[in-house]
What does this fold into?
Amino acid sequence: MRYLPKSDEERRAMLAEIGAASIDDLFASIPAEYRLDRDLNVPRQQAESEIIQYFRAAGDKNSTGYASFLGAGAYRHYRPVIIDSLVQRGEFLTSYTPYQAEITQGTLQAIFEFQTMIAELTGMDVANASMYDGSTGAAEAVMMAARVTGRHKAVVAATVHPEYREVLATYTRHQGLPAAIVGYNARTGRIDLEALAAAVSEETAAVLVQSPNFFGVVEDIPAIADVAHKKGALLIVTIAEAVSLGIVRPPVEADIVAMEAQSFGVALSYGGPFCGVIATKEQFVRQMPGRLVGQTVDGAGNRGFVLTLATREQHIRREKATSNICTNQALVALMATIFMSVYGKQGMKELAEHNLAKADYAAKTLGSAPGAKLRFSGAPRFHEFVLETDEEPAAWSQRLLENKIVGGVELSRWYPELKNCTLWCATEVITREQIDTAARVLTAAPVEA
It folds into this structure.
């Protein structure tokens, strides 16, 4: 009764009120071939205690004792316990869009601090706090560039996250904004600069690249910016791994930075909600989507915070809106704010160095094992790398799972030319012992039947 609270008597009363003789009568307008005429194939009803036991057992299959080398845009980092302690406070957990500044000063200040730290990290002048995630942030940045330049073509690196590119295609499908894809150098894994120069024209609004890119390789942002700016296009750099900014030079040559800040204390949570960001130069701020929080003083000279340049449909006339982003991502942004505050500048650097060292050891260990080699070389990388194996990934991944290890992401689903190649990630939560075990199991000869 807790989950199906309506009794038979109550159902009869509701049917009588609307003039239906039965449930079948109520659904008579639905053709018979679309109606289910049998009971649902579900297990018997269970007590609440049994349901809790079931989900705990299912959760244990996903987490208990498994080492995961997955990355590809969603990263497993340690989350300081203070994050959940603070974000679950009622004044934060229940907050919505802070329309009334007088009674939402805490939320507004948290957003302002988030914007400030993100701007410092990315080397941009200003950042917002309303994007859904990195993929939609990248798509919104391309449309922003089209508004700024008045042009309607984009050039996108093939090394941008494949799912980011899919989201961009969905966004631009009916915008009259075609995107040309530029390939990568087979040796370095970086964007092919000659092909990029050939693809960019006076009609190009934006060049979109990712750094570190989908293969974990750090792009040559100054060189890419030079190609884009010579033709008057804006350079957009999307960053899927925010922790990289602790050690990788920020893309200061970019005009717009679109970033996923999930690594800053936001749990993986099976894919969301995550924390998207757009940061840009001050001259482009009026075309930025989402909202901005500004600092001001009241009539008595006291410091205060307000929404400013909030060019969403909820705030201004639709035809002048820069986006239709409808949610308030402040709670997720607050997680990232607490994370950055806890680590601080030096802590962020040390965390990035830890990730870099761990991935370097993993790449050398796995890449030197019999039957395996690193695919790309000659360019710096952060904490991801591409591993090519003689054996098909499906075979060795099963052996790894039997040893409670989740291996890399198979790349041929997006890049057919990268057969038997997988993308591996090693963050600070991966141990040296787990890397050594993965190398041993990865190269072990399969048992003959």
About this structure: The domain at 82-340 is CATH 3.40.640.10 (Aspartate Aminotransferase; domain 2). The longest strand covers residues 204-210. The mean pLDDT is 90. The longest helix spans residues 330-367.
